[in-house]
Every structure is written in structure tokens, then in C-alpha cells.
Fold this protein.
Amino acid sequence: MNEPTTKAELLALINTEHDRLTATLSGLTDDQLTQPGVESEWSVKDVLAHVTWWEQWMVQKLDALARGDKIPRLLRPDEDQDTGLARLNSDIFATTRDRSLAEVRADFDRSFEQALAAVTALPEHEIFDAQGLGGGLNEAPLHLIASDTYEHYAEHSDTIRRWLDTVHNAEN
């Protein structure tokens, strides 16, 4: 996947990968959406809650940076990035696993609209500049946006498709 160089390309890529993810979900029954095993014990519903949580974190970070606020640290001082992300993802799963499919789907749809609005609101030059949004990310905001939108959608769309292929092959 080529990195976008304009805001229009970025928004198109976000929409394309989100559309691919939602197309992966189309035709799945509620039972399939809630069946564990997609990613370890996660169901598709759990994957959607996970994607939503990270989108919302991105929106909050972008808003805080735009206001000039400091961003809270997610990782503990004694954690490396891999350990911290594993803990966070486990915590997200633990706090969202009992939510209904309808709630998770509604939040997933609403979160995407909020993420799109947050990216759309950013001045183009801020997105691609390592000092954009006050330099609070120590990299261009594009990298935060990519990791919590189009790259994340593609990653989980691929995982769900592989799981569906495995389930389909096991049934035949």
C-alpha cells in the first residue's frame, strides 16, 4: 500500500479500506459475527470493538494536539511497545466483550464518521509535516492516522477473511 501524499489521497484510502472491511462483514450472520476464534478468542464483534477503540483514541489524540494539550501516555513506564499494546488490546477485549453486537456495530459506524470528520478537519499541511499539530507526535500525524484507520482496517479485514476461509474449508 503506497503512502498517501495528499489529504484527498488519504481520505480516499481510509474510505477504500473501510469499505473493504465492511464488505468482508456483509452477509455474515449474527452467529458468525459473535463466534470466537477470529483472532485467538476474539470474534468479529470483538475485532470491531477493538478497531473502534483505536479510532476513538486517534480522534482524541488529534483533538488534544490541535488544542495544544499534552497526550496521556498509554504505555506504562516499565513496558516496551509490544508488551504495552498487548496489555491494552487485552484490556479493550475485557471491557468490550460483553457488549451487544448491535451496540458494537452502532459504535463502529459512528466512530468511523468521527474519524473521517477529524481527519477532514485537519489542515493538509499539518497531516504530512513531522512538526504538524505542534510536533506532539514526534512524527507526521499521517502515521497516527494510518495506523488507526486504513492500515488497521486492512489488517483486520485480512484476518477476518483468513478466518472465513478456514471456517469454509473446515465445513467442506
